[in-house]
Fold this sequence. Notes:
alpha/beta; two-stranded antiparallel sheet; 11 helices; globular
Amino acid sequence: MQWQGRRGSSNVEDRRGQGGMSGNMGCGLGGGIGTLIVVVIFLLMGGNPLQLLGLLESDNPTGSSGYTQAYVPTAESDSLARLVSVVLADTEDVWTELFQQMGKTYRKPTLVLFNGYTTSACGTIQSATGPFYCSEDEKIYVDLSFFQEMETQFRAGGDFAYAYVIAHEVGHHVRKLLGTLGQAHTLMARSNQRSANALSVALELQADFYAGVWANHTESMFRTLDPGDIEEALNAATAIGDDRLQEQAQGYTVPDSFTHGTSQQRHDWFYKGYRTGDVTQGNTLETLMN
């Protein structure tokens, strides 16, 4: 992806090194590509599940290992921050135009860079949750160390793989603006756990689809994709399917517990978005729930 020297977004809030006040985890999350991945990474590295539970639910994250260490920026992390800013700017341009074509106004989200933990309208955000979108404050939260984990743990690194992650989280914001997020939350409140999981899968796959739509239009608008970029994104989508992650973590899969979609589903919905570039073809709720 050709991103160096291009316009970055003004809607990036850099909290790296600032820490944040602790608080209870909220339930107003719009979804995140990283939550399940980071849990699996933790288990694959020999972590104690009880320790992970304490990390996710702790009201005092400063007592967790690593959070009290001073943040030291590196050339690699600063380069990733610039990449993220450029990708966010591209999503702003693409979705502003697509919303105008639909007779709507695109409200730009803010992307928050943090390390360790920070606060949000959804509660305390910790690195263990991975990148995600909080619908309550319309902000995307990213700890850049997640990209290193993508590369080292899942062999899914690369500039456009990281761009796919950001575009997926922006896809959750698009869902909110188009109203499908609210519809899904209403259905979830009336559903049993199995049905709620299926709805979660539909929402995550829709965000993958919107990431593909963005890739289609960012290429037509800016001509910045390099050969192999789409394959890089498809590899990342495949690497983080529920089935593959569960197989790696425990040696078997439990389909009823899937919340993000299988590797094949994630691959296919991203590619459908990229192939068609048509926002109207991403009704995963109707496709998967009927």
